[in-house]
Amino acid sequence: MKFLKIFLVVVVVLIAIFFIGGLFLPKTYSVSRSIDIAAKDTVVYKNIADYNNFLQWNSWSKMDTTTKYDVTGTPEQVGHQYHWKGDKMGEGEMKITEAKPFEQIKMDLKFIKPFESLANVVFDLSKEGDNTKVTWTMGGDHNIFSKWMCVFKSMDAMIGKDFEDGLKSLKEKSEKK
Description:
Elements: H1 2-22, E1 28-37, H2 41-49, H3 51-57, H4 59-63, E2 68-72, E3 81-86, E4 90-100, E5 104-113, E6 117-128, E7 131-141, H5 144-152, H6 155-175
Antiparallel strand pairs: 1-7, 2-3, 3-4, 4-5, 5-6, 6-7
């Protein structure tokens, strides 16, 4: 009986630490990477704001070749979106919410499976001579579980390399003559 009481006290303390401690962890996250591309902003913009092109260079679309994609809406326009569903990649959708041609594309990223989550994605483009600088940023709110997960490995450490790989592929695709 004494063991059971001690066990219950330990469980209650751990639960309290989990929820109360979570209040002190960061509420939001942001990951950002940039690259200079030797291509016109019109070319780079089309490779980002047209999901038919986006899926060719995006690092996550290369991770699972069995994932099914459904692209809808007018490319480069608000409302253009793609939906994915795959065994490894789960299920989700990404939609353009704001488009300033050759300057900025804002997107909503919604993960449906294996867990629900929302993120904001922004691609900023700036002309630098004959080159285009692209900055890819993703941010969102943590839930209690992702807060604790990020204690052990930050969002930057989890997806930063994927951003870098994706931007390198965007550069290669955009610089092809």
